[in-house]
Amino acid sequence: MKVQETLAVLREHFPGEELYFQAVGEVLSTIEDEYNKHPEFEAANLVERLCVPDRIVTFRVTWVDDKGKVQTNMGYRVQHSNAIGPYKGGLRFHPSVNLSTLKFLAFEQTFKNALTTLPMGGAKGGSDFNPKGKSDNEVMHFCQAFMTELWHNIGAETDVPAGDIGVGAREVGYLFGMYKKLTRNFEGVLTGKGLDFGGSLIRPEATGYGNIYFLQEMLKTRGIDIKDKVCLVSGSGNVAQFTVQKCIQLGAKPVTMSDSNGYIYDPAGIDEEKLAFIMELKNVRRGRIKEYAEKYGCKYVAGAAPWYEKGDIALPCATQNELNGEHARALVANGCIAVSEGANMPSTPEAVETFQGAKLLYAPGKASNAGGVSVSGLEMTQNSYKLGWSAEKVDKKLKSIMQNIHASCVKYGTRPDGYIDYVKGANVAGFIKVANAMMAQGVI
Ligand code: NDP
Question: What's the number of domains the chain is made of?
Fold first, then answer.
């Protein structure tokens, strides 16, 4: 396999899909050596079959807003690979959503899900619908219209969507309700469901908690404790909130959070009470993070990310490419020791190069944010058994999965000088599992 040649083929077939090329380029460059040890992979053209999604469903979503105006949006589901289990991955509702975004996310998801060791393939879906500023009624109507198209393509044993940016408990509830109405089937077709109808305890917390469990494992390799460490967190949605909560529980000091308008910097630290304010602000009132600065009298910086502040640990939990080379150099110069990604691909390639060049502990989201989909997998298991596990049991399993993912990264990513390349480790571990399954199942 030649990375550049493969990328050139993809660029020719799918012009303009830059995020997808970025994700594919990163994976291929790290699995190249492993791939080339197996001539049978090349003979089966595994690389192209692994990069190009199995199937993409595209549809128009038509719904009526509160003023009676007919609105249209685009809807998508990218079913990337079901080599190791049913397609599995979240739905994103955000104006920036297009095919390139969802293809990159579905590709990444395939490797991430393989890393969890649970039987889940990779997928992603969503819409350019913007839930911001919409009433509950409008969100419900949109979700119902979206599911009216999507339901043909999903099912508990075929494809199991979940939440992502702009899709939380409210949206999953509406989507599940419509699926049930259309199919007359009460099944575990979505994860992240409410606790009253098949959801799992710890699912809302899972991505954020898992991120910090992974970070703890990384810190342990250098004998460092998370206690008292100053943490820079971006985002203020699901992943950021529970990343901050776990930091607080472990005695670390989160000092920043952000949204797409700007960030707050609270040198006294965000504690449980302040976090409760953020959760109410973001999850109930759906307000802006600026209000935090007004309430607690701290700094608010509009139109910027928190990476120029001084901190020991950076935890990007908002969106892709939110941390660039310049940010990374500032973090390194300010003494940052570790970066653990809650978001998917939040660091640009230049930022990753900077972190690794400076020998920071750096975890790509594919490894460090896999806790969310892991507990989604556990939710699927509970749904199959028609029972619910205790929070302690799920949390314990989550922690153990994150520790195992860390061990896989160490196994496949440790360089001769002892530095752990978590990007390579995660990609190679995930790739080996998917590749072996594909080879065993023949050319399909
Ligand atoms: P939410 O919608 O709950 O929160 C997203 C947060 O990121 C909000 O604070 C949002 O601000 C901010 N944000 C979104 N887009 C941008 C942007 N373009 N620029 C700056 N800030 C932005 O989503 P999640 O917390 O669920 O997801 C966050 C990240 O974590 C995503 O990358 C997602 O793919 C990843 N992830 C999520 C998992 C999950 O279980 N939910 C699992 C694994 C990964 P605003 O409100 O202003 O838009």
Answer: 2
